[in-house]
Design a protein that fits this description.
This protein has 2 domains: 405 residues, no CATH class; 77 residues, no CATH class. Helix content is 73%, strand content 3%. The protein is built from 20 helices and 3 strands. It has a 3-stranded antiparallel β-sheet. A hairpin with a 2-residue loop joins strand 2 and strand 3. Helix 10 runs parallel beside helix 12, helix 11 packs antiparallel against helix 15 and helix 18 packs across helix 20. The radius of gyration is 24 Å and the shape is globular.
């Protein structure tokens, strides 16, 4: 299937293992042929097929999942962008008390406080969404349609998939890049949230682009990569203020590799972006601009629920989405950070986490951690790669319990019941999973070449089925999310009452 898997199988399960009968030897030759085929076309898979899959999954039912009222922040960005494009002051809704003058509007059964000028966020992403809504033919800002508002985010998500493959190939190898890109393309919570018209989806692309260009500049020293950095880093700030983390991350990496002059250029570009945003406020209404941003900066009040939110993606697509993949990703990120000689994952993920901790306040909206998803996928790709190369019962147990048992013992089991997969089949699947874990136990006891080969095969099988389940969940999301919403609401309420 994937080149990295086949490489491991071909190197672990060699001719000496398959020398006992013709059937085994034929299987070995088939593995070699498949590996050679994928090796010849791996870039086509990484740069073409996987992004096409990512785009198709994000486009499927994108206007209804997430729910049109999953977050009204989508309309906040669109209305601001539409008003700017049509020559008006930035106008949108806000609940911040800094706005002393506002107009009450009832729209689609929801009450909004419409304010102008609107300073909740910088204008760059607003303009992108506003252009999409205008192309969609919205005659007024209240006619902005999700069918067009969400298109930029879907494109950003697809481009992010390409950049995940590029970064994985650059940091590790093309096999890990492919595994990471497949994860980013198919994990349900990434696919579904990549549809939302929120600034973090744009911020994710700019972060990945800046880091990739930085690594390329360090290797090739070509001016075009420095130009990309100097465009993407300040643009991230103008998309949303936590985008200042992109400037910090890139400048740290450049400084660490003794590109101190270039690091200074990046810092200066970030300062210019901030000055540009200040000028934007000065030209429109300086006193209100200062009042709004002062209130935004006073949100820092840490609470245990904040950590629950960022660890489990709380307050998610419907109400709360508790996903075993998220939990496994945190383990994988810690693991991969210890194996990352260049410390790119550590610097990138670490600095962004610090940024949202300092800016999130009482709780974390689920879109705050969107820019962490690529780092999660890169870490999981490294984790799976190493698990195949060196089967380890503890690492397999973490993957098994979080990402896999969650499917048949957790909320995903509701999905199977919903589509009328009989309980007996789910029980059989649980028994099979237990048996597969037993293979690792056997290898832990015997530590033989053949048991290691079987463990590698089991890991390949489980990961492959995991990807298929991801795709399956995305396809059925419009039918099963209400079930997950109800179950998650109970979980969320439990934590709220504690």
């Amino acid at each position: 299937m994937l080149r990295i898997y086949l490489e491991r199988l071909a190197s672990t399960i060699d001719n000496r293992v398959f020398s006992e009968d013709p059937t085994s030897r034929s299987l070995y030759r088939l593995i070699q042929q498949a590996m050679a085929l994928i090796s010849r076309h791996i870039d086509k898979i990484g740069y073409v097929l996987i992004p096409i899959l990512a785009f198709a999954l994000r486009l499927y039912n994108y206007a209804i999942i997430p729910s049109p009222i999953a977050t009204t922040d989508e309309y906040a960005f669109a209305w601001c962008g539409w008003s700017l494009i049509h020559g008006q002051k930035p106008t949108s809704w806000s609940l911040l008390p800094a706005y002393t003058r506002w107009q009450p509007v009832e729209w689609r059964g929801i009450s909004f406080r419409i304010v102008s000028p609107w300073f909740d966020h910088p204008p760059l992403f607003c303009l992108v969404v506003g252009v999409a809504a205008t192309i969609g033919g919205a005659p007024t800002m209240f006619d902005c349609a999700l069918e067009f508002m969400r298109i930029p985010s879907i494109l950003f998500g697809t481009l992010s998939t390409v950049l995940v493959y590029s970064l994985g190939s650059r940091l590790y190898n093309k096999g890990i890049g492919m595994v990471s890109a497949v994860l980013y393309a198919t994990v349900p919570v990434i696919v579904i949230t990549n549809r939302l018209a929120v600034a973090e989806n744009m911020l994710t692309v700019l972060l990945l682009l800046a880091i990739y260009a930085t690594l390329q500049y360090i290797e090739d020293n070509e001016t075009k990569y420095l130009i990309i950095i100097l465009i993407s880093a300040p643009s991230a700030i103008l998309a949303k203020l936590p985008g200042v983390s992109v400037t910090i991350i890139v400048s740290i990496i450049l400084f660490a590799y003794n590109y101190r002059k270039e690091s200074l250029y990046v810092i200066l570009s970030g300062i210019l972006a901030i000055l540009g945003y200040l000028l934007y406020g000065l030209l429109l209404d300086w006193n209100l601009f200062v009042a709004v941003n002062t209130i935004q900066s006073e949100r820092f009040t840490l609470h245990y629920k904040f950590f629950f939110d960022i660890l489990t993606l709380g307050s998610s697509v419907t109400y709360t989405w508790i996903d075993g993949w998220i939990i496994w990703s945190w383990f994988a990120l810690l693991y991969a950070s210890t194996k990352d000689k260049k410390q790119i994952l550590s610097i990138g993920a670490g600095m962004y986490i610090i940024t949202i901790i300092l800016s999130a306040g009482f709780f974390a909206y689920y879109w705050y951690i969107f820019p962490l998803f690529p780092f999660f996928c890169l870490a999981c790709g490294k984790y799976i790669n190493d698990l195949i190369k060196h089967p380890n019962i503890i690492f397999f147990l973490l993957f098994f319990v979080t990402a896999w048992l969650f499917i048949f013992l957790g909320i995903y089991s509701e999905i199977f019941h919903f589509i009328r997969i009989r309980t007996i089949y789910v029980s059989i699947a649980r028994l099979i999973l237990s048996g597969l874990f037993g293979v690792y136990v056997l290898h832990f006891v015997l530590r033989g070449r053949r048991t290691r080969a079987v463990c590698s095969t089991v890991t390949v099988l489980l990961f492959s089925v995991f990807i298929l389940v991801n795709i399956f969940v995305v396809i059925y999301a419009h039918e099963v999310l209400p079930l997950l919403d109800e179950l998650s609401r109970k979980i969320f309420t439990y934590y709220e009452l504690r």
